[in-house]
Q: What sequence folds into this?
């Protein structure tokens, strides 16, 4: 079985116009980042010119450089409306650039019926369904009502899809259906505007947050309510339709590994379901597509009750999905090329490669995100000092794909989604795909920002994921285990060299400038120019000084800090000559700072000793090292410690809501404010009991580290 080969990727050729030219010759991509890069890649293969749009906040994104032409459309921070949601601006830009088609990507306006209609009304080709189809299927409420009338055989989850947003009506529906229930934004997906409500007392607050998030993400605050199925899988069917009534299924994807109702690991095929069930799901998806003459790529999503293996319709995403590459890997069809083909009027029946589709091998995708798993997956932002995929030089036949707009020196902005990269792996078997993907993650360097890189490896290597019956509750159920380092038993083996490397690097950095350098002074004694030299080791150190240190310290302690909660880090003694200061130290004889405040922090990326087996364990270790003098060397002033009653902003953010009145009594752990950053809402809870105070109001922008509120 393991001699199965990965299917080659077929690209559909865009139909020609009457004058012999391509019907789509210049495409404006009304999106950014990774998906824009993905679309540009296919367009280059097909000979289509591309126009990228960007804002001042993402001017250094890779899609700006990759496109044939790039146009700045404003600023997210300073414009009154997000430029990526400004239909008039995008249409004006497309016309001025002489584009003949618009691709919406995913997110933003990709499921906006008005945008689709207005693009076509200007005489441009919209790469996606008609506005009528989007308004019917892209809206969860409308799609359910439509299917009840026109396809009653499609199984629907019990719920309330009426137009009322009155909390009393929703309360009555939830009581009738039975808790727990799920609130969902009617106009969009991607985990935005979704909340699980387990008891009646939570309904009002969760509805407010779901509506707020839905309004900002999709321009509509409408929500529907459904029964929440506890033991479930999230399985979806990829479909593509043309303008001539043809719809084909490209099989299923299992997207059950989720956090915050957003997918982080997806795979295909779904080995948990039998072939008959998967065929029934595909047939249902095709039937739904044909009902409305679906055009373009779309995804019909289902929830599967794992106890009965019955499936229920969830929604139709009338766009390309983030996880589409895993379908491409096992089917061997470029979905972006199919989107362009059918948008230009091509017939699916004329593509012989679609007549006998099969799935070959197994594909898995991980979403590498800038977030902090052990802080409830709070998004993080900073500059990526080093971005180094495990093997950046891969050909088209490679079993690994990196879909990203990331590069060293790029910043993760608070204005955009936290996803850094999608890592996609194909293999003959599921077990082999898991093994390769875990090693790719371990060998990829993303330094300078906190990510879920280690967490994803924990998920892949967990026994619960090895069992194909895992459910959407996989992460919440195993969270404590998943937050631990999966390589902890091996940690000393590949981190034992860090203190020596650190000392050597700091010693070199302290050399006086102007000293004559030896050409081979950096080559270590005993070096062998061999690929598997057992002593060959590379090291890169990215230094961030975030506190004051003494001007001279003869003894320092190096402490390895593990990237998740767990046992205390190993400690080594490192002798240092001098710690140089970036800033002058303010001395104050009346204040005495303990030695632990005089610290310097470093992020260490060290390559493990090679043993002759390039795939044995993780080859890279990314750890935080904190250096602090072992003895106090002087009296210095330091910032006053922040009392626990003060709550600081974890990152630059906007105040969405304030849940308490000034002076109101609150309990420890009670929610007092909601902020937004990186397209995610964050609940702020009181650390202690007391009276609530804040100087901010709804809509205010608050800087990182600034006190949001206090509870005295």
A:
């Amino acid at each position: 079985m393991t001699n199965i080969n990965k299917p080659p990727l077929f690209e559909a050729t865009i139909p020609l116009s009457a004058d012999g030219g391509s019907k789509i010759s210049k495409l404006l991509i009304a999106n950014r980042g990774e998906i824009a890069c993905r679309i540009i890649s296919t367009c280059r293969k097909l000979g289509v010119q591309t126009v990228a749009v960007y804002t001042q906040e993402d001017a250094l994104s890779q899609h700006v450089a990759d496109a044939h032409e790039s146009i700045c459309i404003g600023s997210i921070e300073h414009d009154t409306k997000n430029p990526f949601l400004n239909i008039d601006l995008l249409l004006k830009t497309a016309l001025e650039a002489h584009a003949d088609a618009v691709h919406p990507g995913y997110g933003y306006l990709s499921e906006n019926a008005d945008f689709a209609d207005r693009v076509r009304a200007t005489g441009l080709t919209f790469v996606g369904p008609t506005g009528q189809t989007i308004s019917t299927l892209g809206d969860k409420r409308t799609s359910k009502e439509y299917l009840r009338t026109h396809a009653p055989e499609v199984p629907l989850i019990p719920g309330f899809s009426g137009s009322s947003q009155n909390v009393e009506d929703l309360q009555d529906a939830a009581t009738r259906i039975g808790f727990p229930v799920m609130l969902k934004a009617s106009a969009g997906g991607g985990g935005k505007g979704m909340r699980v409500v387990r008891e009646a007392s939570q309904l009002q607050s969760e509805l407010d947050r779901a509506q707020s998030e839905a309004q900002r993400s999709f321009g509509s605050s409408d929500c529907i309510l459904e029964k929440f199925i506890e033991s479930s899988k999230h399985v979806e069917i990829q479909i593509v339709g043309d303008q001539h009534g043809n719809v084909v299924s490209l099989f299923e994807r299992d997207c059950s590994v989720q956090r915050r109702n957003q997918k982080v690991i997806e795979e295909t095929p779904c080995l948990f379901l039998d072939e008959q069930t998967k065929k029934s799901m595909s047939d249902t998806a095709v039937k739904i597509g044909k009902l409305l003459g679906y055009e373009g790529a779309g995804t019909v999503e289902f929830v599967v009750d794992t106890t009965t293996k019955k499936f229920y319709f969830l929604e139709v995403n009338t766009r390309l999905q983030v996880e589409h590459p895993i379908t491409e890997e096992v089917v061997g069809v470029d979905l972006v090329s199919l989107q362009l083909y059918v948008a230009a009027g091509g017939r699916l029946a004329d593509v012989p490669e679609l007549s006998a589709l099969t799935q070959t091998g197994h594909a898995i995708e991980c979403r590498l995100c800038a977030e902090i798993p052990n802080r409830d997956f709070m998004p993080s932002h900073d500059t990526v000092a080093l971005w180094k995929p495990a093997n950046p030089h891969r050909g088209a036949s490679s079993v690994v794909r990196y879909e990203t707009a990331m590069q060293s020196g790029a910043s993760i902005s608070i204005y955009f989604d936290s996803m850094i990269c999608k890592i996609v792996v194909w293999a003959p078997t599921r077990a082999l795909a898991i093994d390769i993907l875990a090693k790719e993650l371990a060998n990829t360097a993303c330094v300078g920002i906190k990510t879920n890189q280690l967490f994803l490896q924990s998920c892949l290597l967990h026994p619960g994921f090895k069992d194909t019956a895992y459910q959407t509750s996989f992460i919440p159920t195993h969270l404590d285990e998943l937050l631990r380092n999966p390589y902890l038993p091996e940690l000393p083996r590949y981190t034992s060299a860090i203190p020596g490397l650190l000392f050597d690097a700091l010693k070199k950095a302290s050399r006086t400038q102007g000293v004559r350098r030896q050409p081979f002074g950096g080559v270590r004694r005993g070096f062998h120019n061999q690929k598997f030299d057992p002593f060959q080791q590379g090291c890169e150190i990215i230094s961030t000084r975030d506190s004051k240190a003494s001007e001279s310290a003869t003894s320092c302690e190096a402490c390895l800090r593990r990237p998740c909660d767990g046992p205390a880090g190993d400690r080594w003694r490192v002798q240092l000559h001098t710690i140089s200061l970036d800033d002058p130290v303010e001395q104050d004889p009346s204040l005495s700072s303990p030695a632990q405040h005089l610290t310097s922090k470093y992020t260490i990326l060290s390559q493990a000793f090679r043993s002759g087996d390039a795939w044995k364990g993780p080859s890279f270790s990314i750890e935080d090292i904190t250096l602090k003098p072992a003895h106090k060397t002087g009296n210095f002033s330091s910032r006053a410690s922040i009392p626990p009653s003060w709550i600081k902003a974890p990152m630059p953010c906007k105040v969405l809501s304030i849940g308490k009145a000034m002076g109101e009594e609150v309990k420890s752990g009670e929610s007092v404010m909601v902020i937004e950053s990186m397209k995610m809402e964050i609940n702020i809870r009181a650390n202690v009991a007391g009276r609530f105070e804040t100087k901010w109001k709804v809509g205010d922008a608050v800087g990182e580290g600034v006190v949001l509120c206090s509870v005295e």
Remarks:
- The domain at 361-484 is CATH 3.30.470.20 (D-amino Acid Aminotransferase; Chain A, domain 1).
